[in-house]
Amino acid sequence: MLAGALARDGMAVTVFESRPAVRAGAFLFLDDRGHDALEGLGVARDRLYAASQPVSTIRVEYAPGPVRSRPSNHRMYLRADLMGVLTEFAASTPAEFHYDTPIADLDLESRTLCGDSTRFAADELIIAADGIDSRARNHLEPERTPEYAGQVVVYGRTDKPLQPDTEPSVLHFNGQIDETVSPTPAFGHIWNDSISVWFARITREQLAAADIGIQPVAPWVGAVESTAPAISDTIDLLLANTETAHFSNARNVPFARAEPPHPGLILCGDADHAITPAAGVGARDAIEDAAALHRALREGTSPTEAMAARRQQIDAERRQATPPGRSRRS
């Protein structure tokens, strides 16, 4: 999306992407801030809405606490559908894309990107949006590594749309408050006439690398049920109609002690400040990074100063945020 926006403004942009053009994965939620930023980059809002599902309300019930509900301006995306819209947008611009081209190393002195069997010269600024295991960040700050956030996250989609005994188009969060367990386990789900998806955050030791990705759900039924015992019937219905799910370790990339943004190599999104999915803002943070960089490069101001300002904003917002089911003092 950033490459497409810059290319539309007449800048020469080359993108090296390690994966295919559109890829499968889990699902995510974006609020109005994320959509506003994408629209500012040039992505049509109607295309985004057509590829997503509305979320009318966010409902939180962590027993034995009270039920809390608030209107929502979020939309739910299957990750592949969002990537399809963004790839379509970028492909309509003069930006040059090289898919299935991972960058294994880089040399800032000679401004050279090194692929598995090829070397590429970088004429200007290098922007690294290479994710939570960023090789660019490892090059700049080898000590700033991802930290396990204490939970395994599971994303599931039922084999056919279901209608549980809950309200449609509502993002339901459920959990069981236990002062001896931190972070708080949780189960969430949302459904409408065309789709039903669910997720679980299970507090436990992290998964081995071989267990990350698409895995059978059956061995995990008990662990998922334990996240929200009060709604076991709903959980059982969803799991009984889900054969496989996506499993991952929730991780953070702290930036409280990060080096200042490098003038020749800018870290963007998860490469700089990944946060556990429990916060629900990782995708929006990355999109707003892209918007800030686009604005700086279009206006001829400093992209390093733009990213320094983004870090300050993100840090302030994270300090104020309270994850569902947690009191501010916890």
Structure description:
- Residues 1-299 form the FAD-binding domain.
- Pfam families: FAD_binding_3.
- It comes from Nocardia callitridis.
- Residues 297-330 are annotated as: Disordered.
- The chain is α+β, with helices and mostly antiparallel strands and 330 residues long.
- The protein has helices at 2-8, 32-41, 45-50, 79-91, 135-140, 221-225, 232-240, 270-273, 282-299, 303-320, and strands at residues 14-16, 27-30, 53-54, 57-63, 67-71, 75-78, 96-98, 103-107, 112-115, 119-121, 126-128, 147-157, 170-176, 186-191, 196-203, 213-216, 244-252, 265-267.
- The protein has an 8-stranded mixed beta sheet with strand order 5-4-13-14-15-12-17-16.
- α2 (32-41) packs parallel to α9 (282-299) and α9 (282-299) packs antiparallel against α10.
Show the helix and strand layout.
Layout: H1 2-8, E1 14-16, E2 27-30, H2 32-41, H3 45-50, E3 53-54, E4 57-63, E5 67-71, E6 75-78, H4 79-91, E7 96-98, E8 103-107, E9 112-115, E10 119-121, E11 126-128, H5 135-140, E12 147-157, E13 170-176, E14 186-191, E15 196-203, E16 213-216, H6 221-225, H7 232-240, E17 244-252, E18 265-267, H8 270-273, H9 282-299, H10 303-320
Parallel strand pairs: 1-7, 4-13, 11-18
Antiparallel strand pairs: 2-6, 3-6, 4-5, 8-9, 9-10, 12-15, 12-17, 13-14, 14-15, 16-17
Helix pairs in contact: 2-9, 9-10
Residue windows where pLDDT falls under 50 for at least 5 positions:
none
Largest sheet: 8 strands, mixed
- Chain-averaged pLDDT: 92
Shape from CA axes?
Answer: globular
Q: Structural class, from helix and strand content?
A: alpha+beta
- The strand line-up of the biggest sheet is 5-4-13-14-15-12-17-16
Give the helix proportion (percent range): 25-40%
How many E strands? Answer: 18
Strand content: 25-35%
User: Helix count, per DSSP?
Assistant: 10
Distance between the termini: 37 Å
Pfam families: FAD_binding_3
Region (Disordered): 297-330
Keywords: Monooxygenase, Oxidoreductase
Domain FAD-binding: 1-299
